[in-house]
Amino acid sequence: MDPPYTHFDAQAPVVPAYMTGQLRSGRKVGTPPPLAVAINGTIQAVTQPWTFSLLGQNGQWGAFVDEISFRSGENEVEVFLVTNKGNTAILLRPVGAFQDRPLWNSGSG
């Protein structure tokens, strides 16, 4: 099943505004970096991966994005690592491939 943001219906009664995912690292890190969620090229949310295990999984994150950031049809969703250099925020693309894309949580269990 395709994520709902690949075939978005702007007239649908439910909008995929709550996005979730998991940040995985092959090495042990202290506090995970903040993440920026972009929809169609615009940052819509910044979140911090949880530092505790949720259902036996580490690195879980969640973020609400503005429902008007989606357009009908296909939407580009990107997640960036956020770091700082002096007073400047820098967005980094994660290295490697995402096996799990951010998931839509309909709240329907």
Order of helices and strands: EEEEEEE
User: Which whole number gives the mean pLDDT?
Assistant: 78
- Count of DSSP helices? 0
Total of domains: 1
Radius of gyration: 15 Å
Distance between the termini: 17 Å
Overall spatial form = globular
Low-confidence spans: pLDDT under 50, at least 5 residues? 97-109
Q: Report strand order across the widest sheet.
A: 3-2-5-6
Oligomer: single chain
How would you explain this protein's 3D organization?
This protein has 109 residues and is an all-beta fold. It has one domain (18-97). The protein has strands spanning 18-22, 35-39, 42-47, 60-64, 77-85, 88-92, 103-104. Strand 2 (35-39) and strand 3 (42-47) form a beta hairpin. The chain is globular and about 45 Å long. The protein starts with 17 loop residues before the first strand and ends in a 5-residue tail after the last strand.
